[in-house]
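Figure 3 (text version): structure tokens given as input.
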């Protein structure tokens, strides 16, 4: 059994800020690889040389260096509401799966995380669709000029439901995602030949990267179909650059296999896997640095450059409790200094 814990020394807003900044920086640094993945999935790289860099190099030559970050601003803006919804949903699901002793099994923890991710993705799905549209369009002749204009244009031309085109693939993709997470977790002790409690930071980082590689590989066909459905539009040049014609999700699967074979469902996987290590590396290091700044600001550590604890501070106190305690001690100290008659 595993107990669901979080660092109580940070406030909810601080945790959200740390996660948002870490996510935005990691997304920005790996944006060219994400662009190559999406274009390969949609079909924008068709006819070019094979490889993870083919689509990105094609965009670089045709549209300039700035085009490698198409859609990244929307992806970064999406992080904060997505993280907030996911955190709130995760708390609700954890409470639902927690037993009377306050413990939750690892399987239930994985399911809670998957369900929370699914809820946050569905709530913020229109921004993900707009990100895909911004990536597949030509910056020199854009159909959309930003998040709000894209939202308004898609709504007026294609209707509200068009903003949720492909959302069912998100739900279906959660099943292999959860199965992959459980598969990795169940074999961690065999991989490292030791108990989970003794894993080092480097081992835990490797575990996250391994889990991400396995889960994304298993759920990638659903993501590929989702990207094609998001990009397809009769109002875009060449129907959004989609390389197959289809009438729905099932037909999209069928047409991809018919035109490209089964491996066509994994087009762009290499670029996607290449971004895992830098993505999570930047995310973890940035999150830890932001966390140290917050802990220093809250008075738990002596410097934001390390985790040396502040002497005499009870680390089990929450930020509000610690502030109230400091305020009380200052008041008592002032009282003791007042002259008595």
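Below: residues designed for each position.
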């Amino acid at each position: 059994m595993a107990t669901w814990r979080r660092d109580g020394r940070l406030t909810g807003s601080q945790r959200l800020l740390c996660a948002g900044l870490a996510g935005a920086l990691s997304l920005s640094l790996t944006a060219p690889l994400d662009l190559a993945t999406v274009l390969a999935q949609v079909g924008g790289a068709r006819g070019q040389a094979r490889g993870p860099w083919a689509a990105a190099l094609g965009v670089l030559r045709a549209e300039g260096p700035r085009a490698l970050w198409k859609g990244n601003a929307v992806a970064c803006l999406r992080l904060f509401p997505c993280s907030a919804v996911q955190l709130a949903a995760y708390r609700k699901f954890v409470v639902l799966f927690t037993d009377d002793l306050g413990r939750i099994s690892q399987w239930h923890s994985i399911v809670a995380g998957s369900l929370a991710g699914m809820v946050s993705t569905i709530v913020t799905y229109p921004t993900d669709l707009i990100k895909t549209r911004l990536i597949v369009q030509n910056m020199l002749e854009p159909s959309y000029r930003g998040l709000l204009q894209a939202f308004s244009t898609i709504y007026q031309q294609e209707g509200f439901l068009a903003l949720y085109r492909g959302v069912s693939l998100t739900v279906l993709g959660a099943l292999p995602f959860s199965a992959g997470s459980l598969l990795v977790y169940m074999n961690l002790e065999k991989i490292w030949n030791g108990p989970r409690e003794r894993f080092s930071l480097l081992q835990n980082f490797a575990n996250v990267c391994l889990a991400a590689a396995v889960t994304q590989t298993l759920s990638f066909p659903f993501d590929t179909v989702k990207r094609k459905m998001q990009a397809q539009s009769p109002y875009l040049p060449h129907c959004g650059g989609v390389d197959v014609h289809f009438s729905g999700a099932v037909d999209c699967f069928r047409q991809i296999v018919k035109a490209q074979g089964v491996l066509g469902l994994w087009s762009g996987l290499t670029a996607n896997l290449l971004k895992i290590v830098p993505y999570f590396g930047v995310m973890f290091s940035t999150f830890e640095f932001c966390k140290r700044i917050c802990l220093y600001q809250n008075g738990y550590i002596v410097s934001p450059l390390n985790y040396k604890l502040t002497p005499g501070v009870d680390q089990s106190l929450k930020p509000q409790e610690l502030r109230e305690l400091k305020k009380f001690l200052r008041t008592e100290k002032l009282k003791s200094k007042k002259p008595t008659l």
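Confidence is low (pLDDT under 50) at residues 1-5, 45-49.
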